[in-house]
Amino acid sequence: MDALYTRLLVTRFAECFEFYRPVLPALTGATLVKGSPDGPYANWDVDDQAVLVLYDRSAMAAGLGTADLPARPSAPTQDSAMLVFRVGDVDEALALCLDHGGTLAAPATDRPQWGPGLRTAHLRDPEGHLIELQSY
What we know:
By secondary structure, the protein is of the alpha/beta class. Helix content is 25%, strand content 35%. The chain is built from three helices and eight strands. The longest helix is centred in the first third of the chain and has 16 residues, at 13-28. The radius of gyration is 16 Å and the shape is globular. It starts with 5 loop residues before the first strand and ends with a strand.
């Protein structure tokens, strides 16, 4: 049974799939259980537990009857959620993510004010979801 996992509702399914397909195994050990770039659904598991699911936003909206609502806010907003991956090497993980279509939000930086020995980098996946890579 999956107790808790993240499902990202995306409009750029194929691009997000191609970003997470190589990144999740390297960062979390997750394996692709179901899905392809054609969508509308894909999931990655670790030890038979879901880690991340991608789902086409329009397919979810159709199921909920909200297809007539806007898919994005009309003006930029501050982030309201973030995926966080604890990794062995922030710089190496960042390079992997950028090589697969991620966009840099903040470079790898030591952040002792956030926690002893903490190093982070921030990026966005192809859909714009904020990701933090961290190591202690």
